Amino acid sequence: MGTRVYQAALTLRFLGHTVWETIPLLGNAAMRTLRDEEDDLILADRHIAESNERVATLIRLVEREKEAGLDAAECENLVYVMQDVLKTFVEHRQLIIEKIPLLRRQVSRLGDE
């Protein structure tokens, strides 16, 4: 049985930047390795850092718009959406952190055999 690879595309653009790009997702039949999870943790940390920066940029934009007397409602809504996405990234990171010790134990058991 082969590994099925799916593509999930989440591309969100604001302030002229692409926030997230297409990411590969492995089907349930795929065995994730310890190295895969460690790589995913690095990527998750990067996504969280970049998202924090983008949310901060949006908040500053909202503040400037309000100071200029402009309606910032749509930008504020985008801030809320981005904060929800950031929360999802943090939750995903936590799942990775929980899985890594399990995989390390599996690798350790394989080395003991």
Structural features, described:
65% of the residues lie in helices and 11% in strands. With 113 residues, the protein is mainly alpha-helical. Strands 1-4 form a two-stranded antiparallel sheet. The model is unreliable at 1-11, 19-23 and 26-30 (pLDDT under 50).
SSE inventory with pairings:
Elements: E1 5-8, E2 13-14, E3 17-18, E4 23-26, H1 34-67, H2 73-112
Structural class: mainly alpha
Distance between the termini: 26 Å
Average pLDDT number: 79
Q: Gyration radius, to the nearest Å?
A: 19 Å
The coarse overall form would be rod-shaped
Order of helices and strands: EEEEHH
Can you summarize the main beta sheet? Answer: 2 strands, antiparallel
Number of helices: 2
Strand order of the largest sheet: 1-4
Number of strands: 4
Helix fraction? 55-70%
User: Strand fraction band?
Assistant: 5-15%
- Uncertain residue ranges: 1-11, 19-23, 26-30
Features:
113 residues, two-stranded antiparallel ribbon
Could you give a short description of this structure?
With 113 residues, this protein is mainly alpha-helical. Helix content is 65%, strand content 11%. The radius of gyration is 19 Å and the shape is rod-shaped.
